[in-house]
TrEMBL record:
Superkingdom classification of source: Eukaryota
Keywords: Signal
Signal peptide per UniProt: 1-20
Protein name (database record): Uncharacterized protein
Length: 69
């Protein structure tokens, strides 16, 4: 019974750690993207396909610079 409880606690601990890592990466991407001078121009409006593509490119470049842990 104790082994089952410990196993469940370990699994939940690992899952919560995964969420924290993803949150760190998403926060890093958002901070980087918001610092980009054209982010709001392309991502806030984003009406045209061209603007959406430029916005996606900004986010992808930021993702490359962020740690993936």
């Amino acid at each position: 019974m104790l082994k089952i409880i410990v196993t469940i606690l370990v699994i939940f601990s690992l899952l919560s750690n995964l969420n924290a890592v993803n949150g760190d990466k998403n926060g890093c991407i958002a901070a980087c993207a918001h610092a980009h001078p054209d982010f709001f121009k392309f991502c806030a409006n984003g009406y045209s396909q061209s603007d959406k593509l430029k916005c996606q490119n900004i986010k992808e470049k930021c993702a490359l610079g962020c740690p993936s842990h």
